[in-house]
Automatic annotation (TrEMBL), chain A:
UniProt KW RNA-binding keyword: no
SUPFAM superfamilies xrefs: P-loop containing nucleoside triphosphate hydrolases (SSF52540)
Lineage, highest ranks first: Bacteria, Bacillati, Actinomycetota, Actinomycetes, Micrococcales
Designated name of the protein: ATP-binding cassette domain-containing protein
Matching Gene3D superfamilies: P-loop containing nucleotide triphosphate hydrolases
GO molecular function: ATP binding; ATP hydrolysis activity
Domain ABC transporter: 6-231
Record's keyword terms, sorted: ATP-binding, Nucleotide-binding, Transport
UniProtKB/TrEMBL annotation, chain B:
Annotated organism of origin: Agromyces bracchium
Alphabetical list of Pfam families matching this protein: GntR
PROSITE patterns per the UniProt record, alphabetical: HTH_GNTR
Protein's name according to its UniProt entry: GntR family transcriptional regulator
InterPro entries attached to this UniProt entry: Tscrpt_reg_HTH_GntR, WH-like_DNA-bd_sf, WH_DNA-bd_sf
Gene Ontology MF: a single term: DNA-binding transcription factor activity
Keywords, ordered alphabetically: DNA-binding, Transcription, Transcription regulation
Domain HTH gntR-type: from-to ranges: 5-73
Length: 301, 119
């Protein structure tokens, strides 16, 4: 049995005349890793700020661990939010941060933090102001992992982290999540890198949820069909088209929905090439300007 | 991992391959969910789904407290199933492509024999 840790209905956040979050419904189940994906300004950070009680909604209902998050210490205690650009007090060193962390996080594991410090080669005695961007990100990642909060948010956690450090993050996250299951929300642009870590994908665009699906369902749910224009058009007729490109007599069309064996055989007979669409490509198709264009073309056709 | 297909299927297939190849003997343990997740860098739920698929097919079974083990007879059954799928998976695409190139069935058979001598 899974327990729902976050339940939002019609959640809305406005800044003046700008609607940042436009009446979204959302639920997060216990013990899963979620990917909160979307373009810059889509509303990812705003959603996480609402869920962690840092800002108030203008409308809708929100329950985190069964209560409103804002001003409820028992709810806030069970959450950890790692912001993209976390600020620390002047003159703080990473050592100060890690010493203070157990005051806020009851499940804090100091030994695990030590191991992560070594993994990331973080100079703990250097003032945070003097750290590189990547080292600053490492501080956040270490707090997020070692706090073992039942609900942990990572908002673009690895600005400036190199490929090695990012893979350390992925490996430690998986390892520790396996040993201490909890709910993790990962917001990121590096979709291809994290795609396999995610159990569930939530795609936000312009304050609305475009996709809220099991990661395994999303995988292979779209295909790009390429070849001679006439053959491609014949093959994709009647299918939901989410992307369209072409040059001269060649066309490349991305369609939503899985292809079965017979359809693949038929495509081969038509001389068409089928290419899988990665999660990242799918999201580009769903949130890109391309979509609007192709929809117009569809309407015109 | 191949992005185009569900990862849990690929996890299941890789374990099946190990059983067919004899890398994992019957009655031997398969890797744990966490080992699979860490090795493939995938979500443990995905690894579990892959292993559960093998459980449903009766190829592996859980022994309480010790892990998942290959069921006796699993290898035989897998080979039987793969033989049944062989024509559709490998022969048909081969024949379609050969026909496109004007290679008849007899010539193709000859090529297969030739190939076998070489390998």
């Amino acid at each position: 049995m899974t327990t729902t840790v976050v339940r939002a209905r019609g959640l809305t956040k406005r800044y003046g005349s700008f609607t940042a979050i436009d009446g979204i419904d959302l639920s997060l189940e216990e013990g899963r890793i979620y990917g909160l994906l979307g373009r810059n300004g889509a509303g990812k950070t705003t959603v996480m700020q609402l869920l962690t009680g840092q800002i108030f909604a203008n409308g809708g209902e929100l329950e985190v661990f069964g209560r409103q998050p804002a001003e409820h210490a028992d709810v806030l205690r069970r959450m950890c939010f790692i912001a993209e650009a976390q600020r620390y007090p002047e003159d703080f060193t990473p050592a100060h941060v890690f010493r203070a962390a157990p005051w806020f996080f009851e499940h804090w594991d100091a030994e695990f933090a030590e191991r992560l410090i070594a993994d990331f080669r973080l100079p703990v005695k250097r003032r945070i102001k003097k750290l590189s961007r990547g080292q600053l990100s490492a501080v956040g990642v270490i707090v997020g992992l070692a706090s073992r909060a039942p609900l942990t948010f990572f908002d673009e956690p690895y600005l400036g982290l190199d490929a090695v450090a990012r893979h350390i993050f992925y490996d430690r996250l998986l390892e520790d999540y396996a040993a201490h299951p909890r709910t993790v929300v990962l917001s990121t642009h590096l979709i291809d890198e994290v795609a396999n870590l995610l159990e569930h994908v939530i795609l936000i665009d312009q304050g609305r949820i475009l996709l809220d699906r099991d990661a395994e369902e999303v995988r292979g749910s779209a295909t790009t069909v390429a070849g001679a224009r006439a053959a491609v058009e014949q093959f994709v007729a009647g299918r939901p088209v989410i992307g369209r490109e072409g040059i001269g007599g060649l066309a490349s069309v991305t369609v939503d929905g899985r292809l079965d064996h017979d359809e693949r055989v038929r495509a081969a007979e038509l001389g068409l090439e089928l290419a899988p669409v990665s999660l990242q490509q799918l999201i580009v198709h769903l949130t890109g300007a391309e979509l609007a264009e192709s929809t117009e073309k569809e309407v015109a056709a | 991992m191949d992005e185009s297909r569900p990862i849990f299927l690929q996890v299941a297939e890789q374990i099946e391959n190990d059983i067919v190849d004899g890398h994992v003997a019957e009655d031997a343990a398969i890797p744990s969910i966490n080992e699979l997740a860490a090795f493939h860098r995938i979500n443990p739920a995905t690894a579990l789904k892959g292993v559960n698929r093998l459980v449903e097919q009766g190829l592996v079974a859980k022994r309480r407290g010790v892990g998942m083990f290959v069921v006796p007879g699993a290898r035989e059954r897998l080979i039987e199933r793969r033989r049944a799928e062989f024509a559709a998976e490998y022969l048909r695409p081969l024949i379609v492509e050969a026909a496109k190139l004007g290679i008849g069935v007899d010539e193709l058979a000859g090529m297969v024999r030739e190939e076998r001598i070489l390998t």
